[in-house]
Task: structure prediction
Amino acid sequence: MLVFEIALLIIFWGSLVLFSIGAPATCLNALLFFAIKSFRRSPSAYYIVGQSFADVIILLIILLEIVSAISVSISSIDCKLMIFSIQMAISVAMSFLCLSAFDRWACTSQTAGIRQLSSTYVARFLFPIPFIICSLLNILFLVYCDLIPPINICWFTNDIFMRIGTLVLSPILTVFLPLIVLIMFGLLTYRNIRFVTHIRHHANQARLSTREHQMTKMVLIQTLLCIFCSFPRAIFVIYAVATIDQSADRSFDQLAIVTLVDYSSQSVLCINFASSFYVFLLSSPRFRKTVQVYLKHQFHLGPNQVEPMNMGTTGKTLARR
Result:
């Protein structure tokens, strides 16, 4: 009983903490990469904005799931929309993470044709695709999920789709496929960077701008964190699939331990959706400086409020603004 209570506490407090620290930072992340012109010049900015939108949806649904868990007035529509939305949003967020990793590989490639794939034109073209494809792939969750009487638990209404959803769709779209893509493009990007370092003296070497270099560093660190956070969930899913036929024979204590590991791996996976802003902030001095200047400008903070200034200079500054 104690293990089961610990599992409930983890999912409750973990969700609150993730939403509290993740939602404001994710909204600020989307605002920065959308509003600041120097960021918009990088193709990865489009993917980061798309990922931020999906992250906000995920964190909001996680909070709403806590509310619905302690509420007695959840409806059938709420049940369907929650399961569909969380599956779709996680798939979209992981897809944009993969697109960011792909863009950094293309940007650092030595082949001119591959480098052309890293452009704002390609990014604008690809931006709506994850939302469309992930919505279509997960639309069956709207059909085969509902409240199950008499306890009104939100679950699958079809046994065949339950196995498809829990053993195929959800693990592949949210864990295994993104994990494979992130590892592959992360290694390829690292190889490209090492290759550039060794041949930098070559006359025809096309060097990255400071902006793109910082963006590559930020995305690589985010990719590495995402890989580490996805591994526990991948291991648990493999275990759950391998022992699915034994689940009916488990005792209450065994089920409580499995539930504890399940909730813990979910919480670790959700770090991906709350940490991108902090990863960028810690990994890039340029990003920190840009955030500092942007926030000072938005909230009118700076030395001109407490220090005397020449009126002519102030007038010219205000006219330029």
